Amino acid sequence: MEIGTALLLGRNPRMLTEIADVLIKESVSVLLHTGSFLETLEKVHSRSADIVVLSVSGLCFEAFNLVRELSRVDRCIRVIVLTMQNLQHFSARYRRAGAAVVLGAAYSTGGLTFILRALRSGYGYFDFIFAPIKSNEKSYSTESDLIATLTDRELVVLQALAFGFSNQEIAEKMNIGSRSVSFYKSSIFEKLQLDSISELGELVVRNKLS
Q1: Is 97 in contact with 67 (CB distance < 8 Å)?
Q2: Which fold has domain 143-206?
């Protein structure tokens, strides 16, 4: 695969600068270095880039949807996600949304260099998935198994609740109704077998979801 151009999307200027440095060293021209998804999408529509590198912080309300939309607009483009989120709980979800590969932000420099070289050599699939997406399971041995039963939106709501956001604030951030948030919240408590917000917060901390 030819990789000559890239789009960078994220809200952490320092991280984006580090990623840009890696790309430039690998002879990849950075066409866009932005926190605006709309700007990135316009570039993807124009077929002007070979890859998109998405940098995601601990809580991003629309990250999964961003990856889905980028992949939908151009199925040939490779989306690489660099995230500070726990890969055990997020890697498979980003892959399911359409990302070519998901890397932990702590390993972005070496990992991104490896991925770029692998893509250029013809590799298109990277088996870096840490946890399965479970469905219709009747027994779970660990909290990780329980967390894997959450939908993508439920996982985002779980994080937001742990950060202290109210139902109304979450609804506004996710552009959904407050009743939907209440539904997701009830489902989260049921699936994770929780009885209180304090238990929810402790679970998020234990599993490094914040």
Answers
A1: yes
A2: Arc Repressor Mutant, subunit A (1.10.10)
